[in-house]
UniProtKB/TrEMBL annotation:
The keyword Disulfide bond applies. The keyword Transport does not apply. This is Alpha-galactosidase. Keywords: Disulfide bond, Glycosidase, Hydrolase, Signal.
Length: 509
């Protein structure tokens, strides 16, 4: 989901006559009318002085953005234009062209920013109009350590709404999912968090309190419903003004939101950088803004006696695992969003599994949610998905419709022997020990002295693989169990691994 609202770099073109005259004609203060919801440009200031042209354009998503590299380009009266860029802090998005042209009464902005076409007129503004659109800024806390909350001693397990439902989520669906987790036995297998991702937020009241939207009439009642079934409720927000789907973020209301969620009975927060990257795009500011919420959650939890699992979602920037615990975090995303395809899952799971020594009881590398059961991969590919996540000691957050799982999906998600690998109390992250010709061998040491071993086939044809037990430090004749076949196997067994598949073993010397 975070891919929707990445860095916005926009070249903006201003048509006009000769260079100096055109620049002078377009200097001043401007207010936009009825701009598209993303990124909702509200006003613009253009100035010309001895240092040349400079300006600022303001967006409801990203606040005041400087017009970078502002200059007049083009030849002839019809070709003259003023070009600049804006940057919301993400280095991946390519420049996008926009045009701001005179329309007889003011100017009109047209073009496209990221996924949304722009067409909005602007008129010259009075000082009062400009002041009414001032974008507030707030100080960040000085660096400080947020004490651990004692939670997530093993990787969190549960369900999250985004992968299947995106923002089309509501109270009834969440209740139905909770019931399905109980009915299917997945709650008892360890999947206890029921997490509402983006799309629940409504408007703030006059007192600043954020209310849920009409799809969620009573969040406390929903939390009570979930708790009554032996489950826990999770929620979602952003440190920016807008969430990834355009709902209200926690910008300027961090402590207030943490208290509100505590009063509702929330047990888990996913805090997604989203529009916050326009404000917080250095290592220092990103760490500070996540520290701010970590401290707010700790204070609210202390007041209510309900500590909150804190999930940092800033896409692995600035070596987040090195400081995630220090800001109160229990898990931190190591990558961008997963998609329901083997290519996406494999790129994340095999190649972007975070820094291993950052993982352990209380804090976990998070390669994003599970796609199992959503239909974009084969059963063998989903088996690889779960096996990789278990070997990596990753959180297991289902992203499917738990109300309508097939037997295959339930068997994949509910395999107690594989879950035991993921939840092993030692908390060591598995690593590849051999990669060759599309075949990989991964190992993970476990608390009882045994070793989990994954034989992965990344090719599109079946391959034959064996485990070299002496090389893995397990001697010549370890006791070996196949965790997907649920049977013991001979140490020297030859395994046929399906295309994009896995054989997951547990070996004891």
């Amino acid at each position: 989901m975070n891919q929707l609202f990445r860095r916005v770099l926009a070249g903006i073109l201003l048509a006009g006559p000769a260079t100096a005259a055109m620049a002078a004609d377009l200097t001043g203060d401007w207010v936009f009318q009825a701009a598209p919801s993303f990124p909702r440009f509200s006003k613009m200031v253009i100035r010309q002085d001895a240092g040349g042209l400079h300006g600022t354009i303001t967006s409801e998503w990203y606040g005041d953005l400087p017009m970078l590299d502002l200059k007049v380009v083009g030849e002839g009266p019809a070709g003259k234009r003023l070009v600049f860029h804006i940057d919301n802090g993400n280095p991946k998005l390519k420049p996008l062209d926009l045009t701001l042209a005179p329309n007889g009464q003011g100017v009109t902005l047209t073009g496209q920013v990221w996924y949304e076409k722009q067409e909005a007129s602007a008129h010259r503004a009075t000082a009062a109009e400009m002041a009414a659109l001032d974008f507030p800024t707030y100080p960040l806390p000085a660096p400080a350590h947020v004490p651990g909350n004692g939670l997530a001693r093993t990787p969190p397990m549960g369900w999250s709404s985004w992968n299947k439902f995106a923002e089309a989520i509501d109270d009834k669906t969440v209740r139905d999912i909770a019931d399905a987790l109980v009915r299917s036995g997945l709650r008892d297998a360890g999947y206890v968090y029921v997490n509402i991702d983006d799309g629940w937020q409504g408007e703030r009241g006059p007192d600043g309190v954020l209310h849920p939207n009409a799809k969620f009439p009573d969040m406390k009642a929903l939390a009570d419903y979930v708790h009554a079934r032996g489950l826990k409720l999770g929620i979602y927000s952003s440190p920016g003004p807008k969430s990834c789907a355009g709902y209200a973020g926690s910008y300027g209301h961090v402590e207030q939101d943490a208290r509100t969620w505590a009063e509702w009975g929330v047990d888990y927060l996913k805090y997604d950088l989203c529009s916050g990257e326009g404000f917080y795009h250095t290592a220092e500011t990103v760490q500070a803004v996540y520290q701010q919420m970590g401290a707010a959650l700790a204070a609210a939890g202390a007041a209510t006696g309900r500590p909150v699992v804190y999930s940092l979602c800033e896409y692995g920037r600035f070596d987040v695992g090195a400081w995630g615990r220090d800001v109160g975090g229990n898990l931190w995303r190591t990558t961008g969003d997963i998609e329901d395809s083997y290519a996406s899952m494999a790129a994340i799971g095999f190649d972007k599994n975070g820094v291993p020594h950052h993982t352990g009881p209380g804090g976990w590398n998070d390669p994003d949610m599970l796609e199992v059961g959503n239909g974009g991969m084969t059963t063998e590919e989903y088996r690889t998905h779960i096996s990789l996540w278990a070997l990596m000691a990753a959180p297991l957050l289902m992203g499917n419709d738990a109300r309508s799982m097939t037997k295959d999906t339930l068997a994949l998600l509910g395999n107690a022997e594989v879950i035991a690998i993921d939840q092993d109390p030692l908390g060591r992250q598995g690593l590849p020990v051999r990669k060759r010709d599309g075949m990989e061998v991964w190992t993970r040491p476990l608390a009882d002295g045994s070793v989990a071993v994954g034989l992965f086939n990344r090719t599109d044809k079946p391959v034959v693989m064996t485990a070299d037990w002496p090389a893995l430090g397990l001697g010549d004749h370890p006791s070996v169990r196949d965790l997907w076949a649920h049977r013991s196997v001979a140490p020297r067994a030859v395994h046929t691994v399906p295309a994009h598949g896995v054989v997951l073993l547990r070996a004891t010397r």
